[in-house]
Amino acid sequence: MTEAFVQQLGHDPVGVWAAPGRVNLIGEHTDYNDGFVMPFALAEQVVVAAAPREDGRWGVRSLNRRQTVTFGPQDLVPGRVEGWAAYVAGVVWALAEAGHTVQGADLVLTSDVPVGAGLSSSAALECAVLTALVDLSGLEVAPLDRARIARRCENAYVGAPTGLLDQAASTLCEADNALFLDCRSADHRQVPLDLSSVGLELLVLDTKTPHSHVTSEYGDRRRTCDEAAKILGVAALRDVSLDDLDDALSRLPDDVMRRRVRHVVTEDARVLEAVEVADDGRLADLAPLLDASHTSMRDDFEITVPTVDLAVETARAAGAHGARMTGGGFGGCIIALVPVGSADEVGRAVAAAFDEAGYGAPAWFLGVPSAGARRLV
């Protein structure tokens, strides 16, 4: 990245920063309902080389897209900068909205986080850029506040109604751990996730069915949850317990809303159980929780698609102990808990099933719990 920066701009960068994509181990669509999530950071990441510039403007070059976008203070208005560069301009805007003075800068970036796969490539971009700009500008911003600022970028500048999960994972995760996050209080802690110690590994398989939080039905699900919470007289669906679920469902006006609420309440319970399982070192017992989560997303929240369902079913038939869709839904990735050394075998089985069904070829890799946003050089 240092060499790429020199090639693009003719001088050395001040430093190189990175922020990872993430896999959500369990806890889907619970974050914006003030609930619980359990993601971990991937080894795949966005890397940014950067240096200050003196004209008060920002220039960003994407090596992946071979595009350069430059913007100034007058462009720090939601909707003014579009496409992938909106995530960069949005970070500058969100930092300024939080009261920070941001140094103009040149940034050169690259990414190996799959785009549109539900692995938070956008949050990785936001958090890598934010980490670089905070350092370049000499700002003091606590890690959790960095996640909140990056989320503000995505919500208010880009226009995706996501919760805090993605940015928190990209910022706060530590290697060899998952992150347990209470999305209401923002309390969080590391949860040990040494799968190899119990003879397991996590397959991440991209179905190559792209999705978008901005244009998909993600927003519709969120609105339904908000409406249900109002009807039930609670601040958020997190406040509905398993013990109270049947009574709560009886008070809702239609079956669609009842199923949406049932998913959120039971998914929160599955996250809490997953934390207990991991704390106890019983990582094989994550498998039935993954299976139950997928069933709930498929039948109650209705956010899976045929490619995703086929991938999950095939992975289980090929030897996975448990599998589920991960991410916001309507495409993207699945994860599968498999015996050590069998990930490729399971991936090939899914590829064969896709070929037989007339779908395009999937891609897969091992999900390795990795470190969050940081300075590399």
From TrEMBL:
User: Which parts of the sequence bind ATP?
Assistant: 62, 116-122
Q: What is its main location?
A: cytoplasm
Q: What is this protein called?
A: Galactokinase
Pathway membership, UniProt:
Carbohydrate metabolism; galactose metabolism
Q: What role is this protein assigned? A: Catalyzes the transfer of the gamma-phosphate of ATP to D-galactose to form alpha-D-galactose-1-phosphate (Gal-1-P).
- Annotated GHMP kinase N-terminal domain ranges read 87-172
Q: Does the keyword Transferase apply?
A: yes
Compartment list: Cytoplasm
Q: Where does the GHMP kinase C-terminal domain lie?
A: 280-355
Keywords assigned? ATP-binding, Carbohydrate metabolism, Cytoplasm, Galactose metabolism, Kinase, Magnesium, Metal-binding, Nucleotide-binding, Transferase
The family database entries (PROSITE patterns) matched by this protein are listed as: GALACTOKINASE, GHMP_KINASES_ATP
- The catalytic activity of this protein is classed by the Enzyme Commission as 2.7.1.6
Galactokinase N-terminal domain mapped to chain residues: 3-52
Similarity section: Belongs to the GHMP kinase family. GalK subfamily.
